[in-house]
Amino acid sequence: MTNNANIAKMVNQLNEKQKQISQQLYSGNEQMRGLAKRVWRVQEDERKHIARELHDGVGQLLTALINQLQQVKKGDESIALDESIDLARQALSDTRVISRLMRPRILDDLGLIPALDWLVRIMADPEKAMIEFHHQVDSILDSDTQTLAFRVIQEALTNAIKHAQAQKIILNLIATDNLLMIKIKDDGIGMKADQEASPEGFGLGAMRDRISAFGGQLTIISQPGQGCEIKILVTGRNGR
Questions:
Q1: 155: Cβ contacts below 8 Å, ≥ 6 apart
Q2: Which residues, other chains included, contact 134 with Cβ-Cβ below 8 Å and sequence gap of 6+?
Q3: DSSP label at 125?
């Protein structure tokens, strides 16, 4: 083979390599755009949920309170002031719950474990759902990782209680310098494989996207009537 033929072969190989790299970059950019769109959709869905909670809950309580106060102003003696005070207190309580669920101050002030203790306490229903929480944290978690863990656990517990009708939920959390592992297991109604894969299914798409943004993985083991186990694994934390 002549030198010219060798050079031509090398040029072709380089061109082919360049084409492969370009395709990989294009594919990577497409994946990033897709992830950005899904994260944006998650944020919009959360805003929609909060708006609905405010409108249907606090908004209706305040409307009822205004109507009662107007009746009192007109001299209607059938309206008891105590009822108005109860409505105001309920509206205040609902506002505080929504505010804490949006961003609990305890997460910023005391950290992840006290915040999860609080979350488990307010989400557990003494008559319907029992939640066991076990944890082993051997590392100081940065703020973003704490927020990630809190949000995906909040989403998983909501799914288990509201959608899967679970009576018992076991939550395990382990954190080291280079690993975060969360496992949520419930005895609810479970789900089919196509429900797991659906991006809209019970908020699982939102959980996957949050975890993907951290380079982690979410695994679901579930069958109809046999509960559900969600495992979240994020490795290589703290740059290791």
A1: 203, 206, 207
A2: 170, 171, 172, 173
A3: B
Mean pLDDT of the chain: 84
Its sign, for the CA torsion 34, 43, 101, 221, is negative
Would you give the end-to-end CA distance of the chain in angstroms? 48
Q: What pLDDT, in 10s, does the model give residues 160-216? A: 988 888 999 999 999 998 899 999 999 999 887 666 555 555 567 778 888 888 889
Detail the DSSP E strand segments found in the chain.
130-137, 168-176, 179-186, 217-222, 228-235
Four-CA torsion 17, 21, 22, 25, nearest 10 degrees: 180
Q: How far is CA 35 from the centre of its chain?
A: 15
Beta pairing partners, 181: 174, 233
User: Which tokens sit at 135?
Assistant: 């944890």
CB 186 within 8 A of CB 228: yes
